[in-house]
Design brief:
mainly alpha, 2 domains, 9 helices, two-stranded antiparallel ribbon, about 60% helix
Length: about 200
């Protein structure tokens, strides 16, 4: 019996698309979780605003309580990032599902709101990976645009440098594995994330 081979390619595309969507959905939920933690920390901090050192004490206390149970993703530095994340994006709806936590960590280093808004818009429009976003920031794309008389040409060059976005890159983040309760194994980082079983549930 003659079978159209395109059916296999179509099914493989469906499988890969579903996996990518699942990974991005989990990453977005993780990002929203960090936002909610940052919101809760900020509210608690406001109650102790009469004490200048309360914020530092609070983040250390939270990290000491959470890190032993949930891992390095809840270190004092990470807790402070969650607080900064909420303060920078105080409206939950402003947290875009197209961007993952690593995108936001990079964006938190941007020093102006206009510049940040620009990089968010371009990252979403062009499906920039975190590496691409970081490279465009380091290459001062925003500043080059401001100085250029031919903004479209500058943007065209940046967009042509775009690398294909691969959702599987997200799960190489150790904090992603901790979020899912997965144990890290060296072989996981040496193989295609879709091949074999190089991780296990805690």
């Amino acid at each position: 019996m003659l079978i159209n081979q395109s059916v296999i390619a179509d099914i493989q595309a469906i499988i890969h698309d579903a996996k990518d969507k699942a990974i991005r959905l989990v990453d977005h939920e993780r990002t929203l979780m960090y936002w909610q933690i940052g919101q809760r920390i900020f509210k608690e901090e406001q109650q102790g605003k009469d004490r200048a050192d309360y914020g530092n004490y609070l983040t250390k206390f939270i990290a000491d309580q959470l890190e032993p149970e949930y891992g390095s993703g809840f270190s004092k530095r990470q807790i402070e990032l969650f607080r900064q994340f909420y303060r920078t994006f105080p409206i939950a709806n402003a947290v875009r599902s197209q961007l993952g936590w690593t995108h936001y960590k990079i964006l938190l280093r941007v020093d102006s709101q206009d510049k940040m808004d620009f990089y968010i818009a371009e990252a979403i429009k062009n499906s920039w990976t975190t590496r691409q976003l970081e490279r465009q920031i380091h290459s001062s794309l925003w500043e080059r645009l401001l100085m250029s008389n031919d903004k479209e040409s500058v943007l065209a060059v940046a967009r042509n440098e775009k690398q294909p976005s691969d959702a599987k890159e997200i799960i190489k983040d150790p904090m992603y594995l901790e979020f899912l309760g997965l144990h890290r194994e060296a072989s996981y980082y040496e193989k295609d994330p879709g091949a074999g079983h190089n991780y296990s549930f805690a």
